[in-house]
């Protein structure tokens, strides 16, 4: 009996000294020492997405070719991350994307941390939809149109509008007629189409 007791104590001492004492692990705390191969099949145990506010989690998950419980590879996970970035690009929302993968045997736990940025403001070019002359009696609309450069369908900015206003003024001066010219842009459709109205007061 004493011999068996001594042997048991000796075996326990060897186990502690060599690190062979057994322990059980469960969940994401038990991770492999290194990542598996890029094409190795892995069981997706969980996918956690944080930080998304402007884009819903449902929209993000709908863009992915895999979901919790599926078998995936590291390559497929990386491709899924690119799909998420594509969703944000379509919605015109910038983001910083962080990915953390945890491996436990043949299982993988994915954490995606998203830091959203303000939507980019895209400036749409203004386009001339119509040009109207009001108050012109001594010069015809055709005369004034010939003096200007902007036409229906032309893109317009402040400089182009000012240049045409000056051109109309010079057309009147060339005829020896005094006139006050005021250009009023409007967007009746509420979009990028502009109606230019020249309000002319001849003297």
Automatic annotation (TrEMBL):
Residue ranges the record marks as coiled coil: none
Keyword Lyase among UniProt keywords: no
PROSITE patterns according to UniProt: POTRA (PS51779)
Pfam families, sorted: POTRA
GO cellular component, one term: outer membrane
Annotated compartments: Membrane
UniProt keywords, alphabetically: Membrane, Signal
Signal peptide: 1-23
Chief location of this protein within or outside the cell: membrane
Top-rank taxon, per record: Bacteria
Domain POTRA: 126-203
The UniProt record lists the keyword Protease: no
Protein name: POTRA domain-containing protein
Native source species: Gluconacetobacter takamatsuzukensis
């Amino acid at each position: 009996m004493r011999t068996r007791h001594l042997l048991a104590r000796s075996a326990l001492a060897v186990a502690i000294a060599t690190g062979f004492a057994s322990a059980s692990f469960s969940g994401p705390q038990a991770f492999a020492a290194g990542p598996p191969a890029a094409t190795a099949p892995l069981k997706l145990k969980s996918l956690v997405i944080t930080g998304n506010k402007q884009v819903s989690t449902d929209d993000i998950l709908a863009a992915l070719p895999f979901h919790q419980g599926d078998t995936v590879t590291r390559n497929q996970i990386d491709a899924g991350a690119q799909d998420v970035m594509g969703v944000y690009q379509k919605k015109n929302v910038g983001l910083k994307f962080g990915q953390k993968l945890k491996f436990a045997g043949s299982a993988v736990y994915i954490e995606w941390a998203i830091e959203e940025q303000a939507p980019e403001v895209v400036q749409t070019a203004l386009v001339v939809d119509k040009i109207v002359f009001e108050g012109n009696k001594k010069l015809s609309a055709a005369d004034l149109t010939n003096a200007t450069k902007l036409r229906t369908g032309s893109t317009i900015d402040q400089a182009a509008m000012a240049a045409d206003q000056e051109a109309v003024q010079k057309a009147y001066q060339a005829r020896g007629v005094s006139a006050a010219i005021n250009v009023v842009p409007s967007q009746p459709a509420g979009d990028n189409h502009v109606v230019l109205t020249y309000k002319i007061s001849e003297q």
